[in-house]
Amino acid sequence: MIKLIGILIIIIGFLLKLDTIAVVLTAGVITGIVGGLGFGEILETLGEAFITNRYMTIFFVTLPIIGLLEKYGLKERAASLISNLKAATTGKILSFYMVLRTIAAALSLRIGGHVEFIRPLIYPMAEGAAKNKYGELSEEETEDIKGLSASVENYANFYGQNVFIAAGGVLLIVGTLNELGVEVSEKDVSKAAIPIAIIGIILAVIQFRIFDRKLEKSKNKN
Amino acid sequence: MALEFLYILAGIVSLLTSIYAFKDKELKTRFGTGLFWLLLAITFILGELIPAKLVGIIVLIMGILTATGQVKVGNFKETTSEFKEKKSKEFGNKIFIPVLSIAFFAFVIGQFTSLGGLVGLGIGAIVATISGLIITKAKTKEALYEGNRLLQQVGPFSILPQLLAALGALFNAAGVGEVIASGISKAIPADNIIFGSIAYCLGMAVFTMIMGNGFAAFTVITAGIGIPFVYNQGADPAIAGALALTAGYCGTLLTPMAANFNIVPAAVLEMEDKNKVIKTQAPIAILMLVIHIILMIVWAF
């Protein structure tokens, strides 16, 4: 049981809104100690994982160009493109992206990303559509649109990816089960992932529609 | 090799940010901020050349810097919205070419070569930077400055995914997963497929929330709970397996431990509330988890 102390530290740290990085490091070091690792071993595990997981931070290389294009009006252009579509709403744009991104994930097409797509293109379009219709937005409404724009990327990516027969997740399922003596093929697993991909799209579209309605209601009141 | 080259490029972006921070006279914590980005740059540029123990020490120092409030966002020359509007009219839709070329190269290289999508993303970023500089006729220095601005806005959160992966490695080394799996398996009756399905899906979601990673959860929870309570009871392995992993992803949507999906995007989109992405996703994630449990009971058996 004492081994779970790291989880407790994380939960308390997040609840008290302490510095996240310090909380994570503390939890890691203490878990290592109660798990019987020496301090040298802890440092080594920490350092090794940090280096091998550098790929998670590779988006740094896209920052200069995204920043430059923003300076030269990328977001404004994305918003004005949307203003030509009179019927566009935040929810419709996000729904369209949800379908497109799920299909891309299912085909293992690498389209998407919060830094590469959501910030420069999808969010400005989603916000632009709302501004186009209602004029200025409150801070809370902008924050809501940001939240939805970030979520759509995750929904589509997570629930769509295993439809692809050679997705990392499919290979993991087959590999793990075979090792445990349960026979299963990649083809069957990827087929079994289809219903969840479709349900994911449906629920996301409903959430986006609810937002559209809520926005319409609050704007009509004023 | 190609990937190491990209890590060096990423390190250079961090190094530039470090230099800009050190030179930022108005930033009170410029020394700590500059040091943070410098240390990160070193781990990226030198990478595996540094002994792992030393990297561990570097990471702890970075943690001390953020814990003591030494890493802050600097001051930037903001571009006026008049300038942005004017330029966006001037360039028209040409401005989209660089952004789309990132996606295009990531796709083509990931799909048709053995280099992989990450290398594709990097090559795409290089092509995008060159084409972007040509289209906007901007100076290279402007791009570097804007890259520094974005990186400081995202801030120390940008290293959280790597740190959490390291935490997961420590959890694994200490055997945290086995404790959880055995705890859950003691609590449920062995021959009840309803309890079994609930325990498997819920176990996946909860353990993924703790580890921040559905893959790590799948191996532990499948061995500890899936095999005795679901597969050995006659579940279709393809269906139960596929559902279990995406049940884990429901947990990913709910946890700050999956920082690259939930916390970094909040910083990237400059949200006030860093948990906003999780709060937005919560209703969908919980509903999806319930659907997973129901599907496992009625469809896998």
Label this structure with key terms.
heterodimer; A: about 220 residues; mainly alpha; 2 domains; 11 helices; globular; B: about 300 residues; 14 helices; DUF969 domain-containing protein (chain A); DUF969 (chain A); transmembrane helix (chain A)
Describe the structure.
The complex is a heterodimer of chains A (222) and B (301). By secondary structure, chain A is an all-alpha fold. Helices cover 75% and strands 0% of the residues of chain A. Chain A is globular, with a radius of gyration of 22 Å. Chain A folds into 2 domains: 2-52, no CATH class; 61-221. Chain A has helices at residues 5-15, 20-34, 39-52, 63-71, 74-83, 90-106, 114-134, 139-160, 168-179, 186-192, 194-221. In chain B, 76% of the residues lie in helices and 0% in strands. Chain B folds into 3 domains: 2-67, no CATH class; 81-138, no CATH class; 175-299. The model of chain B has no long low-confidence stretch (mean pLDDT 91). At the A-B interface, α1, α2, α3, α4 and α5 of A face α1, α3, α4, α5 and α6 of B.
Query: Termini separation of chain B (Å)?
Result: 47 Å
Helix segment tally of chain B? 14
- Number of β-strand runs of chain B: 0
Oligomer: heterodimer
Gap between N and C termini of chain A, in Å? 55 Å
Shape of chain B: globular
